[in-house]
Amino acid sequence: MLEVVLNPIPGHEGRGRRVAYLRELRGRDELDLAGLDPASLSEMLSNLLVDVPGAAIGPGRLSTASVGDRDLLVAALYAGCFGDAVVSEVRCTACAGPFEVRFSLAEEIAIATRAADEATQREPAAGPDADGFYRLPSGVVFRLPTVADERELLAVPAEERRQSLLARCVRTSGGGELDADAIERAMAARDPGASPDIAVPCALCGAPQTIELEIVGFFLAAVARETPLLAREIHALASAYRWSFQEIAGLSRRQRHAQVELIELEREAAGGALS
User: Fold this and answer.
1) What's the total number of domains in the chain?
2) Is 196 exposed, middle or buried (0-12, 13-18, 19+ CB in 10 A)?
3) Tens digits of residue pLDDT in 86-95
4) Which of 21, 200, 201, 256 is the Cys-Cys partner for 251 at CB 3.0 to 4.6 Å?
5) Which conformational region is residue 96 in: left (phi greater than 0), alpha (psi within -120 to 50 degrees), or beta?
């Protein structure tokens, strides 16, 4: 079981850490995830949450969680499955050449969290109140975007999503004109997730550029890349132990990898490695 530390609520730090718990992925989860798009991942993620006393987010409650907390859950799942290192190929915005980027997921989340702490000081806001709303000095009252908001916005034309999100999350303008940029900065400062912008130079021409660590997309892409390996592992276990597909699919990743490693070692000792 994975313990995931979520974003603290400003002013509530003395109440202890906010945490949630995820069970390990099983083979059937990986097979289901391989066919999902980012919009569908949250529903699957909700099924991985474990009901532990004191957990900030439990099973079936992910839709009301903030987008930042959802991203932290996905990041923890990514690290648990594939490790902390993230490798991605991007195309340079200057020379158009492809180059590889490597970074530590934990380090980038820590950097984003520190930046959010600093931004909170620059973008002061009172709250949250009992309903989760913050009040800016301008009088604007807002709440953080949730997973449910994100899902609903997918039905809205892309050019209208920003305004639609503000309409959902802002309760009152305080009598003045809305400053969308200021509201979005205040939201981001209070809900850092695992999708920060990363400044990198092109490995080919050296041109500086910014790439977005979109953790949901990274995670689903990593699962999809492993699908052929998963099929081979299921075949190896079925051949060696005569287990049913359902039995093998019910194993956690860690159990499955351990059993396949034993099969490989035995076959290597016998002179025939697993293909």
Assistant:
1) 2
2) buried
3) 888 889 999 9
4) 256
5) left
